[in-house]
Design goal:
alpha+beta; rod-shaped
Length: 184
């Protein structure tokens, strides 16, 4: 490698030659204060400045890009968790509308669902809880009975923990409610 051609360089040549290290640091310093390197020192110094410029740009941009990516992942997990509790509430009401007061099995045994059995059904649906939060179902019969034509309401609450670096540990409480009429 010759010193007359400033465009040919390698990492080893910069690390092994202190004068190039010093010139590169000077150029980084000039760019930090927005001085024009072409006016001071000509083309050779501007090419040396470009070597350190990419490193400085990467050091500034990388934390921003990583922070944005982690925030997007957290938002996607929150949206998934909301869809999870919405579907859980709907499944709970579907279970309750077919297990009303008139529900009997083939052997004429009663299969009427209670509030506890509906809440247990919703809790045990087994969908992946990727947000690692806690889900709490609550079932009510607004009309006061489980007869056909009465309403059943299942509300699912979910505490979603926020797990972002450099953000205080906090949580968001989400809830979804589903109401349907008992059919049998």
């Amino acid at each position: 490698m010759t010193s007359s051609n400033p465009t040919r360089w390698s990492v080893a040549s910069i690390l092994l030659k202190p004068d190039r290290q010093l010139r590169t640091l000077r150029c980084i310093w000039r760019h930090a204060f927005a001085l024009n390197s072409l006016v001071r020192g000509g083309r050779r110094n501007s090419l040396l400045c470009e070597r350190g410029q990419a490193l400085v740009e990467a050091a500034i941009a990388l934390p921003v890009v990583v922070g944005f990516a982690l925030t997007m992942i957290e938002l996607c997990l929150a949206m998934y968790s909301y869809c999870l509790i919405s579907e859980s509430a709907r499944e709970g009401t579907r279970y309750a509308i077919v297990h009303g007061a008139a529900c009997v099995t083939a052997s004429n045994a009663s299969c009427t669902a209670t509030i506890t059995s509906i809440n247990t059904y919703v809790s045990g649906l087994g969908w992946p809880n990727l947000g690692a939060g806690t889900m709490t179902p609550a079932t009510t019969f607004p009309d006061g009975n489980q007869n056909a034509g009465s309403r059943v309401q299942v509300q699912v609450s979910y505490v979603f923990p926020i797990n972002l670096p450099f953000v205080p540990k906090n949580s968001i409480t989400m809830s979804s409610t589903s109401v349907m009429y008992i059919v049998q």
